Amino acid sequence: MYTRNTIHILFAALAALLSGCHFNSSRENASGDKADAMLVTGKFYELMKNNRAEEATKLFSKKVLESENGSKLTHVFSKTLSECGEIIGDSLIACQSMVVEGTDPRSEYLMAYYVKRSIRPTTETFSMTKENDSIKIVGYKVNMDLMGEP
User: Nearest-CA neighbor of 112 among 141, 77, 147, 72?
Assistant: First the structure.
């Protein structure tokens, strides 16, 4: 039979082992996660269509806005507008999401859009992450076809 001290030692060892463990569950590409991310990109395109680029920057993570890249955002917006034209429409062409819940939670999203513009189309990619229960843009990339000049 186990002595009382042996049982206490076993429970202490088990508690130490469990306290060092991380319990997480994850899901990928869930339709609800896609819908949540599309709310952010939808708001972005709504603001950009209405020439409210300054407001669109509020959809970006504070880390981005405080970095060197944050100061380049309005330049990217104006350069895209002058080179490619105004947004006529956008359509989602790719979406990936990874949501981890538990002791080490994180939510990451990657969305790519084909954007029809008045001069030439673009493909625009958003990297997003959840910060304090709000999805924020952490990366924005615009690809344009300059070889196919109009």
Answer: 141
The alpha carbon of 58 is separated from its chain's Cα centroid by a whole number of angstroms, namely: 14
Alpha-carbon gap, residue 65 to 74, rounded angstroms: 11
Structure tokens at 30: 């869930």
Residue tagged 């999203």 (tokens): 109
pTM of this structure: 0.79
- CATH label of the domain that carries residue 80: 3.10.450.590
Task: Tell me the sheet residues that pair with 126.
Answer: 111, 140
* pLDDT tens digits, 2-55: 566 766 676 666 565 555 556 667 677 778 889 999 999 999 999 999 999 999
The domain tally of the chain equals: 1
Q: How many CA atoms lie within 13 A of 31 on its CB side?
A: 0
Residue among 19, 26, 40, 21 at smallest CA distance from 106? 26
Question: 42 lies in which domain range?
Answer: 23-144
